[in-house]
Hints:
Structural class: alpha+beta
Amino acid sequence: MAVSEINTTEDNEAEDELFLHQTIIADKGQSLLRIDKFLMDRIANASRNRVQNAIDGETILVNDKPTKANYRVRPLDKITLFLPNPPRNDEILPEDIPLDIIYEDAQLLLVNKPAGMVVHPAYGNWTGTLVNALVHHFRHLPTSKNGDIRPGLVHRIDKDTSGLLVIAKSEEAMTKLASQFFYHSIERTYHAIIWGVPKESKATITTYLNRSPTDRRVTANFDSPEKGKIAITNYEILEQFGFASLIKCNLKTGRTHQIRAHMKHIGHPIFSDQMYGGDKILRHSEQGKFKSFIENCFKIIPRQALHAKTLGFVHPQSNQMVQFSTELPQDFSTVLDKFRKYGDSNKLVVGS
């Protein structure tokens, strides 16, 4: 049997790290073969059920079009696939960490992640993560079969960003939710406090994002697709305080540090964001009462003032659009109240 050409695509989207994204070109001598059998022969852990779920979620394309389960692969067909990577829970220690679950049903749950909690175990953070907590939580759910615990991650948010995450409780739910992230149809709204007041009250920021060549921890903005992945953020000012603003951001893409990098790019970094320069006094005087006021606010919210406030998506079982929302966390709302009471003469409320 001739070997097909397989190209693995690296993607900087935070959620894409959780999935297998490949393009397979069938060889010239390929005999007609059902696509599920074709993929099961070529992809590790690609069970018939896993492939079928991906086909239903339209994350398996043949020649750039969604396919059907009975499609027979032909010579030189291009198969593009996006499959959830199987869980590796034998590497994860279950921990009894409280979770703020705002909704749960047989297919999924919504978690309000606190700032300071890492989502997934990685170098330097093997314990105390959201996944450690989920593994413990899922051990006691009836959907956990034969000890197969599935943390169900389909996206992530930064350690020091608070807010909503949707967790899949079945492979079908994971694939259908992953499809919505893949096609950018998820509705995601963040609230952020930024330095200064942008010239436009509503605008769209479009750049190409990639890791900074000088600091791999930071995401940098570029001006061409050859240098990074396209990133699109819509923002709207909700309140102005003269020296700062409260904004909401709707993501059209889901790149790593997207909002943080975009706000720095337009000259308005997120308040208290150490990595992107928001932990310095960037407006008004660096002396006297204003300096003391801001330094006190930095102590109240010693992390980027960014909260994943709402999530909207098509429910994997009902196929109905659902939306979930959370209140701002205490550190965020406390700083907002202080800004409102500061009495800046340029304060203007333009939204809610």
